[in-house]
From TrEMBL:
Keyword Isomerase carried by entry: no
Family affiliation: Belongs to the UPF0065 (bug) family.
Residues of the signal peptide: 1-27
Alphabetic keyword roster: Signal
Lineage of the organism: Bacteria, Pseudomonadati, Pseudomonadota, Alphaproteobacteria, Acetobacterales
Protein name: Tripartite tricarboxylate transporter substrate binding protein
Source species of the chain: Paracraurococcus lichenis
Amino acid sequence: MSEPRGRRALLGAAALAALARPAAAQAWPDRPLRFIVPVAPGGSVDPLARLIARHLSDALGQPVVVENHAGAGGNIAFEMVARAKPDGHTLLVGWDSLAINPALYPRVGYDPLRDFAPVIQTVRTAQLLVVRPGLPAATLAAFLDLTRRRAVTLGSPGNGSIGHLAAELLKARVGAEWTHIPYKGGGPAMADLIAGHIDAVFLTLPAATEHVRAGRLRALAVTTAARAPALPEVPTLAESGLPGFEVTSWQGLLAPAGTEAAVIRRLNAEVARILALPEVAAQLTAQGFEPVPGPPEALAARLAADVPRWPGVVTLAGARVD
């Protein structure tokens, strides 16, 4: 009799454990969530993070606190989330640099494919080359010619950012020359450009859309295959004499590896719902984003494709960060 009773006890314990797991997932979230943003306030990553955080807080009944941890091309924030407890309360607002940095830096403290659980890709967009209005260059051709005749400073959201890499690709393609000025995010780069402290910036299109429309900056070209609906008058690099030149930027949410699947599914569903809200979709589209919500597997596939792609691009561009 003792053996059956022992088996029954084990089965009972297993059943209780199985019941406890869904209960734990249902209890989430039981405290505020943290959105870790790898750049300084401003630019394009930060405003989108705050927009989603505001709506997600209403949906989950808990505050969603946006924390900016800029530096090292995003690596500080990436490592912070990779090492965080996988309880669904710490999330990374990730973008291209998560996949690019392992090719740019001699060492990074994370693996983009093993250390994160993709939640959802939120948007994609173009990179944009903008110059200060006083610069004597109204077209891409004029700008490139100017770089060969005089010293030009070109800023980016940071070493290893996709804006930096797009600029290096352009430089390698056309033989232009400029001094690269890295910033801790698109916001500080834009502020210095508007103030006239630098000549140009390569950054994500939505960070500059309103400044271009207001005439504070002049846009020369976008990096996508087609023109951006938010700035339809701005030609593509391909139209400007560089056929085949294309760089598309993305943003998304990721959790630490090991986060419960039920939490990932809930987050995915809530953020997809938020992106589909008419007022949110209209705002993002007007800024230059294309909302592209999908399952977690879609962002995982994007990362799996990007990580092996960038080392060859980095080598071609000659970009390297010490």
